[in-house]
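Case study 2.
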Amino acid sequence: MTAVVLLATIVGMGVIGVAYGLRGHRVALDGVLDAWERTVPLGQSDESSARAVDRLGAPFVAAARRRGWATHRWVLRGLADLEITGGDPEAFVSRLVVLTAGGALGPLVLWLLASMAGVPLPSALAAVVMVVTAPTAIALHVSGLVRRAGDRRRHFRVVIGSFVDLVVLSLAGGVGIDGALHAASQVSPDWAAQRLGRTLLTARDSGTAPWTALEALGRDLAVPELVELATTVQLAGTEGARIRQSLTARAASLRRHEQADAESAANAMTERLFLPGALLLLGFLLFIGYPAFQRILGGF
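Prediction:
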């Protein structure tokens, strides 16, 4: 009887939460204007933020901002990962809440259902599964974000190298530094090049220096190569440095860095492939030697 009451309570709370999340909310006019003016990253849409489940993380994000947690280095790193992957902090926190609740309540519900069905399961097993499942789900979700952000940062560095080469070509043709930056950002339809183009276009419309906009973008995305590029461009724009030679050296440095990363990844993959090869050889030796070993044992 107690299990039935507890299960009914959990189901009722879930129904109330779903009904509250699906209930329409009145949107203020300033919220509509902010949503209209907000730039959506290439390849992303507002459908994910419009779902009811993504509103679960809004109170947690607001509480973190009120308590000043937004300045913590881990939080800043997470915001940079979300920024470069085109994610929304509220949607990310909502998924964390859902995964935590599912990992914590899922084993309990299964244990209750098994008990009601007459299959006795130890309560300690359900408790252990609850303790293990929730952190594992959170770790997998966070590691997935970190992995996607790392891949996009590597891609962004490659695009920066090509972008710098195009800027050098425009400068060689007699174009100014501002025009060269804008022309180079409009060549490729890649998402990283378009992100650079939108940043430079916004800086030009607002009267901000392009190197200031590039530096802010590099810090928001946690891409130090973009910050270094902004510093080089600033020296040319404010102190008249030899920009073509500086940018050529910067592009060569980026290519060497990417080549070293590619070689390191290839070496790591080769080392990881050694273990499957060794296990395959061991299995082959066991397959060949088992009949002879069986005959030897049968002779005694």
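Confidence is low (pLDDT under 50) at residues 39-50.
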